[in-house]
Inverse folding.
């Protein structure tokens, strides 16, 4: 338990939090890169998935894409992007790698959610004279909402967790605290950094679950 | 001389690299495969009793699923670092981290597979005098095998990808080659190791799919034969 006590000492030392390589700066970098990547992934994946789901096409592609995505090591993608001319642009490789990583779960869940809407309900709505657009907004989207949000939640947490790897290829973020600790054989700093990242990932999960609980009943009544 | 040029020119694709470092590449691949195989096997050995326990006692299901899901949210770099004080810089550290990740996928899939066993099959076996152990081994597990194997495939593929992060403690198989090549911006090594990693994942997935088909011959009975009976 000595290591945890040492990590606690690191975390409660004020100087470790300030400055360019301090924990606050690393946390801001981490949230910024994760936020941009997650936002872009949602902008790309959700409209495509919802449209394909509405049309009822391309499902095999969406699901296969998700499974193939698991086979691609993010660390390898980051390393490959590092060696391209993109590396001069700082966070760009990290954002690209994270978007590639977040799109599959978003795509699969949103598509599956749209396809699992009961056919009979759709038929009834159509019988009531709803247009394709009304069907999409008033029936399909609210019913698919829970599964779409499951994908959004898992993608967000995975992006936060994976952004840590950017440090292994020289990028910013909380992972830098860990890798810097490794390079100086400072176990206390390594464990402190790991705790920070783990707590952040769990915190994001908890916040998203709470947001989901607050939002979904509203969606159901509309 | 033309052959030597691709190493000097730092090309992405360089056969001279693959030829001259074949031993290094083989060693890294062997390390990668063994770390993955050991992790998934241990994961399976732990996940099966956990899933059975969660199924037998409703009180266990919530905590077991909650805990394994929580483990999955811990970033891989953080996971390997948190285990550092316990294991030091060793392969056991990487394997432990990977086992913890595989549990989420395996426990869920085994539970789903067991839940999907038709109650009629279970009743029939009980009627034939099968005890709980024989029921599990000869009826429930074989019927749950497709879902179980689907879990093993996902766990294996993602473990192969995650093993690369083990490079942080020097036990990342092909990930080591990637990490070693980064400071010198050695493109051929990064690309070759990355491609090998993805090929390994695809190959493992196909092998497991083949194994699944071998283990579940009854799923291959053509629909026509079934109708005729």
């Amino acid at each position: 338990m000595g290591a945890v006590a040492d990590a606690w000492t690191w975390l409660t030392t004020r100087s470790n939090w300030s400055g360019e390589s301090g924990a606050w700066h690393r946390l801001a970098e981490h949230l910024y890169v994760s936020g941009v990547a997650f936002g872009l992934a949602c902008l790309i994946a959700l409209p495509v998935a919802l449209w394909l789901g509405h049309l009822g096409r391309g499902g095999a592609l969406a699901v296969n894409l998700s499974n193939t995505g698991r086979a691609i090591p993010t660390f390898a993608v980051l390393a490959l992007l590092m060696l391209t001319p993109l590396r001069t642009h700082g966070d760009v490789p990290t954002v690209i790698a994270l978007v590639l990583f977040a799109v599959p779960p978003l795509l699969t869940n949103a598509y599956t959610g749209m396809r699992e809407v009961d056919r009979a309900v759709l038929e009834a709505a159509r019988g009531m004279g709803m247009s394709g657009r009304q069907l999409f907004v008033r029936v399909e989207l609210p019913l698919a909402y829970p599964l779409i949000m499951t994908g959004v939640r898992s993608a967000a947490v995975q992006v936060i967790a994976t952004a840590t790897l950017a440090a292994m290829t020289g990028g910013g973020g909380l992972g830098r605290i860990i890798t810097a600790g490794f390079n100086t054989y400072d176990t206390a700093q390594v464990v402190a950094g790991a705790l920070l990242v783990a707590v952040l990932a769990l915190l994001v999960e908890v916040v998203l679950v709470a947001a989901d609980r607050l939002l979904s009943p509203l969606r159901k009544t509309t | 001389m033309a052959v030597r040029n691709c190493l000097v020119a730092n090309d992405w694709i360089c056969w001279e690299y693959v030829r001259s470092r074949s031993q290094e590449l083989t060693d890294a691949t062997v390390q990668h495969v063994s770390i993955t195989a050991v992790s998934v096997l241990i994961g399976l050995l732990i996940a099966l009793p956990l899933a059975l326990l969660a199924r037998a006692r409703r009180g266990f299901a919530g905590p077991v699923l909650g805990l394994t899901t929580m483990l999955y949210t811990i970033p891989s770099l953080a996971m390997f670092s948190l285990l550092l004080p316990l294991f030091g810089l060793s392969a056991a550290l990487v394997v432990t981290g990977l086992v913890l990740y595989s549990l989420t996928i395996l426990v869920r899939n085994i539970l789903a597979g067991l839940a999907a066993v038709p109650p009629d099959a279970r009743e029939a076996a009980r009627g034939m005098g099968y005890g709980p152990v024989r029921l599990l081994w000869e009826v429930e597990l074989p019927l749950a095998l497709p879902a179980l194997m689907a879990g093993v495939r996902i766990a294996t593929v993602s473990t192969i990808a995650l093993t690369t992060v083990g490079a942080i403690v020097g036990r990342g198989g092909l990930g080591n080659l990637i990490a070693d090549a980064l400071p010198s911006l050695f493109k051929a090594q990064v690309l070759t190791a990355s491609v090998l990693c993805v090929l390994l994942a695809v190959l493992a997935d196909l092998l497991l799919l083949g194994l699944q088909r071998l283990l579940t011959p009854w799923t291959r009975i053509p629909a026509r034969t079934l109708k005729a009976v």
